[in-house]
Amino acid sequence: MKRMLVTYMTLGYPNLETFYQFVEKSVELGTDILEIGLPPKYAKYDGPVIRKSYKAVTSWLKDYISPLKEVRKRVSVPIVILTYLEDYLPNLDSFLTTLHEIGIDGILFPDLLIDYIDDYETYVSRIKEKGVKAVLFTGPSLPDNLIVAVSKISDLFLYYGVRPTTGVPIPVSVDSLIVRVRNLVQNKLVVGFGLNDFNDMRKALSAGADGVAIGTAFIEEIEKNGLQSALQFVKTLRGILDEYS
Amino acid sequence: MVNSDLLPKYWYNIIPDLPKPLPPPRDPPDAEISRIELLKKILPKEVLRQQFTIERFIKIPEEVRDRYEVIGRPTPLMRAKRLEEYLGTPAKIYFKYEGATPTGSHKINTAIPQAYFASEEGISHVVTETGAGQWGTAVALAASMYDLASTIFMVKVSYEQKPMRKTIMELYGGEVYASPTDLTEFGRKVLKENPNHPGSLGVAMSEAIEYALDHNYRYLVGSVLDVVLLHQSVIGMETIAQLDELGEEPDTLIGCVGGGSNFGGFVYPFIGAKKGKKFIAVGAAEIPKFSTGRYEYDYPDTAGLLPLVKMITLGKDYVPPSIYAGGLRYHGIAPTLSLLVKEKIIEWREYMEEQIYEAAKIFMKTQGIVPAPESAHAIRAVIEEALIAKKNNEKRVIVFNLSGHGLLDLGNYDSIRKRVGK
Q1: ipTM score here?
Q2: What phi-psi label fits residue A200: left (phi over 0), alpha (psi between -120 and 50 degrees) or beta?
Q3: For residue A52, which of A13, A82, A23, A84 has the smallest C-alpha distance?
Q4: How far is CA B13 from CA B169, B256, B267, B278, in A?
Q5: Considering only CB atoms, which chain B residues are within 8 Å of A165?
Q6: Is A245 exposed, middle or buried (0-12, 13-18, 19+ CB in 10 A)?
Q7: What is chain A's mean pLDDT, rounded?
Q8: How many Å apart are CA B400 and CA A222, to the nearest integer?
């Protein structure tokens, strides 16, 4: 089975033109699902690099609708929006309707199972009712029974973040973490959060991950070495994933 | 000789078995530096790996099991027969005696693996804070077991009340300072605001972390973090095996709570093994975190150098009163324990100093052991439970963790005796 590459980019980072080119070409180079971050008020569960990228775009990015429409026009793979439920509580339904109208496939709220755990089933239903797919975000601090329960209702795949925050290389044993959840997850298991070292990635794939989600590494590449280098990185990752297919 | 077959091969982590997800640590909004990233410079790498690699059972390294044997693990599980007789209760009372370790408390159970992991990483010097002195003593010994130097920031009020604790730490090779000190920026700031600051665990912890960061040493954690509760699970794992040997099924499990490590270490393996019906955590009424604390994200240390964790807390700036159980003078409760209390899986009690003193005296007279004032909180709850069992004529099995002895707390007993007047 083909292993999935879920490519993350903050909406409009570092500027709209580079952003469009990155997402479009990354799909040509083998991205299976695009994950696009809408800057939240408080990125509780994101690391310093992604937080910085949010900051960089919020100064000028006032409207998320037209850039998302543009992305939808340019790529045909599924698009999942990553943002925090906290910010959309007052107008969740209209937000979801807007996303659906643009043609966005799914939404991933990293705070759903942490801060809204008592009502998560209600939120998942509300998302699905609006025709948007609910991609659920889990991690090692979720108890086994909950991982089993949510893996069954997550659309597209189940996101499993192996580190407590994105992009910070806290030492963890990726293989042990995946071995623990692989048997609990009856769904495609996509592993992310600080997974930017090839060794970790290989460990995750060998331990049974169906794909990887990469974000911080692309932002850093764009920032340090520019668009072409980030795209080259997409290609390299695709190559590693295909070794396991 | 103890039966070392009963020494567990695995530590137990309760996170996979919690009723709800454990809220992860966070960086504060608009943080200039990532506290989560900073952890890499604070903790030994393997300690950090164990904190975040969540598996139900984690193998105890052979090198650590060897040292556990050196300190006399498994520690005895004893029946408090005379206490039962004194109370006239049909309940059976057992206690796990962590005071039987050389440093006199459970603290050594995590000091050993943390010092081992630091030495494996090539670290030469470890730093920590201590309240009552048990944790500092454990670190001083564990460090010397692996030829590491150690520096200990001791809460000033305890430093003054317990000069003998300082002596032991120094005999083990530790370097001991009364916190707040002028060795750190944070200590100087605290002293400037209040030159007579009695110190607190939160302040001493902040000083120790800053000192470790400044010198590129590593900081050893005495409580609160999940990884500490993981190491302490050796207590509960042993107790389960010991009760099995006796053919006993426990009904009620009781322990005292400072940050939550002896309690979690003792009780969690029972929860995981679905043994026991009632779990009681006991705190000090003078530091009313169970009754008045809020369940929210807060810093484990007063300076805010560590990531925010969600826990029951009185606030990081809370200065606890100078009660005689120094080990309970902490503003928060370990995140997993906070969650289990919120979910009502674990009950809590809070008692005043006089009630504790009463219980300690009964225990000394009946069982002969001078309990650490912290552990005497558990005894108070045990007595109440045993009397309820008497009233209802229940043949319950009550097991508690006697987390330490109080032979180095005689000064505190003296002072409370003067205050209470008996």
Answers
A1: 0.86
A2: alpha
A3: A13
A4: 30, 19, 11, 20
A5: 24-27, 34, 36
A6: exposed
A7: 94
A8: 58
The residue among A173, A216, A233, A168 whose CA lies nearest residue A13 is: A216
Query: pLDDT value at position B1?
Result: 53
CA dihedral A109, A112, A114, A119 (to 10 degrees): 180
Closest CA to B181 of B161, B143, B152: B152
A115 close contact with B: CB closer than 8 A:
yes
Q: Is B125 helix (H, G, I), strand (E, B) or coil?
A: strand
The pLDDT tens digits of the residues spanning B170-215 come to 999 999 999 999 999 999 999 999 999 999 888 898 999 999 999 9
Average pLDDT of the residues in A199-208: 93
Residue A200 a catalytic site member: no
Spatial separation of the C-alpha atoms in residues B346 and B253, rounded to whole Å: 10
Backbone angles phi, psi at B64, to 5 degrees: -80, -40
Q: Decide if A35 is catalytic.
A: yes
Q: Please indicate whether, in this complex, the C-beta atoms of A172 and B53 are within 8 angstroms of each other.
A: yes
Whether A141 and B54 lie within 8 Å, measured CB to CB: yes
Q: What angle do CA A122, A128, A132 make, to 5 degrees?
A: 135
- Cα A96 from chain centroid (whole Å): 17
Distance separating alpha carbons of residues B374 and B323, to the nearest angstrom: 10
Band the pLDDT of A46: cuts 50, 70, 90: confident
Give exposure, B3-16, as e/b (b: 16+ Cβ within 10 Å): eeebbbeebbbbbb
Closest Cα partner for A168 from B172, B48, B277?
A: B48
Pick the catalytic residue: A32, A46, A111, A221?
A: A46
Strand partners, A160: A138, A191
DSSP B212-274: HHHHT-EEPP-SSSHHHHHHHHHHHHHHHHHHHHHT----EEEEE-SSSHHHHHHHHHHHHTT
The beta-carbon contacts of B178-182 under 8 Å, at least 24 apart in sequence, are B178/B154, B179/B129, B179/B153, B179/B154, B179/B155, B179/B203, B179/B204, B179/B207, B180/B156, B180/B204, B180/B207, B181/B153, B181/B207
Residue whose token pair is 């902490």 = B330
Q: How many C-alpha atoms does B259 have within 13 Å on its Cβ side?
A: 26
What's the gap in Å between the CA of B54 and the closest CA on chain A?
A: 6
Least confident range from A35-39, A161-165, A181-185, A199-203: namely: A161-165
What tens digit of pLDDT does each residue of A93-146 get? Answer: 999 999 999 999 999 999 999 999 999 999 999 999 999 999 999 999 999 999
Calpha distance A179→B7 (Å, rounded):
26
Within a 10 A sphere around the Cβ of B395, how many other Cβ atoms? 10
Pairing mode, strands B218-219 and B125-130:
parallel
Q: Give dist(CA B413, CA B213) in Å, integer.
A: 37
- Burial tier of B282 (Cβ tally within 10 Å: 0-12, 13-18, 19+): buried
Rounded distance, CA B167 to CA B358, Å? 29
- Using 50 as the pLDDT threshold, list the residues of chain B that sit under it: none
Is the per-residue pLDDT at A196 higher than 70?
Answer: no
